[in-house]
Amino acid sequence: MAGSEAADEILLDRSANGVATLTLNRPEVKNAVGGGMWEELRRIFLEVGHSAGDRVLVVTGAGGHFCSGADLGGVRSEVEEVPRHPLDAMHPVNAAAIALHDIPKPTLAKVNGDAVGAGMNLALGCDLVVAAESARFSEIFVRRALSVDFGGTWLLPRLIGLHKAKELAFFGEILSAKEAAELGLVNRVVPDAELDDFVADWAGRLAEGPPLALQQTKRMLNNSASLSLSEALAWEASAQTVNLKSKDTREGVMAFLEKRAPVFRGR
């Protein structure tokens, strides 16, 4: 797939308040990802991560669905037309997953309709997940004789524990939004008609937050599973030192004392 075609199938919109919205735009196949789209996802994740004007990234899908995973039809075509070792073909997939995880800013999945396979793990790879009541989730890989990818084997045990992760991966059953929330995979489930407004509110609040403090908190939480308490406390002390030297912390204190809303600028 040419780069221009991938760009047409992944849209990036930026609002004046610092909210960047990535929309998978292949509604005819429930926004399945294939070909050059993996490279385009990585490019956008890196771009948003480095952009001073972007404070939060919302990931969603067009046409009533989030993402149906990898485009298996496209995989078949690639195998037939351009012989390529499957391990080599996974490199762009992995690079996109890493780029999403490494975005230093808050990321928010707005899930409507199906989020299955790599699409489910794309949502779980975001910091927060908000789902419409009609949303459905599945680690559907096993039904296609595939193993879990796009970071699912790393994400699931951390989110819901090893045994429950194995259940979802081994059976590939469909979860309702309510069931996903009960497991701890989803932060909020809202009526379909309220999804846009709810996510806009959360994204706006995140965009108005203190960028340096949010970035450091995200990094520390992401790394917490591999740290001892003493190591985590050392990271916290370092992060707080950076905050206390920033203009944003000064602004936060002055706003509190003056009983007004703070205006954070990321410095």
Describe this structure in words.
The chain has about 270 residues and is an alpha/beta fold. The chain folds into two domains: about 200 residues, 2-enoyl-CoA Hydratase, Chain A, domain 1, CATH 3.90.226; about 45 residues, Lyase 2-enoyl-coa Hydratase, Chain  A, domain 2 (Orthogonal Bundle). About 50% of the residues lie in helices and about 15% in strands. It is built from twelve helices and nine strands. The strands form two sheets. Strands 1-2-3-4-6-9 form a six-stranded mixed β-sheet, with helices on both faces. Helix 2 links the parallel strand 2 and strand 3. Helix 2 runs parallel beside helix 4 and helix 10 packs antiparallel against helix 11. The longest helix has 17 residues. The radius of gyration is 19 Å and the shape is globular. The N and C termini lie far apart (about 40 Å). The mean pLDDT is about 95.
What attributes characterize this protein structure?
single chain; 267 residues; alpha/beta; 2-enoyl-CoA Hydratase, Chain A, domain 1; Lyase 2-enoyl-coa Hydratase, Chain  A, domain 2; 2 domains; six-stranded mixed sheet; three-stranded mixed sheet; 12 helices; 9 strands; 50% helix
